[in-house]
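Homework help board

Subject: predicted structure for assignment chain

Our instructor gave us this sequence and asked us to write out the predicted structure in token form, then describe one feature. I got the tokens but I'm not sure how to describe them. Can anyone check?
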Amino acid sequence: MLYYHPNTLFAHKRKPQMGTSTSSTLSLLSIILFLSLSWAVSDSDSINGAFLQCLSTHSQSSHPINAVLYTPDNSSYSSVLETYIRNLRFNTSTTPKPRLIITATHESHIQVAIICSKKHGLQMKIRSGGHDYEGVSYVSEVPFFILDMFNLRSISVDIEDETAWVQAGATLGEIYYRIAEKSKTHGFPAGVCPTVGAGGHFSGGGYGNMMRKYGLSVDNIVDAELVDVNGRILNRKSMGEDLFWAITGGGGASYGVIVSYKIKLVKVPETVTVFRVARTLEQNATDIVYQWQQVADKVDDGLFIRLTMDVVNGSRSGEKTVRATFLSLFLGSLDTLLNIMDENLPELGLQTSDCTEMSWAESVLFWTNFATGTPVEALLDRNPQVLTHLKRKSDYLKKPIPKAGLEGIWKKMIELQTPAMTFNPYGGKMAEISPSATPFPHRAGNLCKIQYATNWDEDGSEAAERYINLTRQLYSYMTPFVSKSPREAFLNYRDLDLGINHNGKNSYLEGRVYGIKYFKKNFDRLVYIKTKVDPGNFFRNEQSIPTLPY
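My token output:
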């Protein structure tokens, strides 16, 4: 290390010549900066080396961890990191990168990662499928590593018991395929995107197009395996009902590492019916959307009609219009569906030719925009159909928006052009389950959940800021129509605009800002459980559940 004597630096302090004082100051600043950088690099290397040594020391000989470690020096590091980045906003040269990636293949790898992370102060990010909309599972502003769960993806289906054990790294598509492999009359009420990882989806209260019939994914979970802050592997019995409750809708990454969930399968008919019908403003979309609001949460529980509104080219050159797309799954026959639609939403004018009968597994592909007739093996593909830059936000609608309100929304959407909105209807089973049964509180009293969605292809921070701002403008415009005190939000539609936790002395107050929006009255119980099972706040991220401040 270079050594500088202070007398050398200030030799001419008493009789400075023109410019000497400034020159000396700049020299001193340069030296300080050089030393600071040297120490920072040295400190970083020291932490990395000690962390790697710790992992190796504690690794089981039967399951050596070295085989699943990827540092930036490893030729596969970039591909392992980028394979499960599902939002291109967080795949740039300036995005903070992990010091290390551990692609766990055994529970002992998780245990060792926790032990060594605690000892050496590296933050742990837990990634199952990489679909966190804000990249929270694989990005951090502090030194961190990723515990990647994609190798832990086993699925064990027991049709006689009507259950399945599902590891956190399994995708929803893989789960649906393995269920369909065993039975044509069983399914599971989770998301419609096949590449989403089970760990984050389930623990955050993930939903799908059977929620009006069977509730959320978490309403159908009966057991779990988790590695806690002390490295213990716990199941529902050994972790206790409080912790089990917290990880079924409160976000598992605040409490431990979810290894697997035991899910309860649900019955589906051998044949279901789907349709996708679009109408523009010129095709009476306003009246149809208005009527959809009156019936979507009240019709037959087996009918789910998602409504998506976006801006498209109008019939006249240079003009824009709003398109309303109605995408549906009905757990029954085509004839029965047509009768229900004629009675409840005749304005749509649904025809036999608009509808298709198929198996439940095939309906998942239809909902993901695969061509009709695509083999169900496509559910096993882990590569998303579309990979883009995106921003998402959420809201809850308690009562129908009047027609004048809808017309104002259309005008605003045409002004902004890019952001779209999706309305997902509630009612049915969702209205029957207590808001405190799981941490997910959005039950009776909700007409639908709203997702604001903006996608773009341009790279760069300027483009990102522009499109994010467009999304925020539409969200702001919707304020008079949606829930209030709090303005509610959905955890799995992660939105850092709602608040960021810096996990310092104000952690509880920062956490309460977004926590009340996501969990309402359940937030206090989540904080109590967090304080009990992880008092040192080891499991933390930008929107984790905080501990009590006292």
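Reply (TA_rk): Your tokens look well-formed. For the description, you could write something like this. The first helix runs from residue 6 to 9. That's the kind of observation they're looking for.
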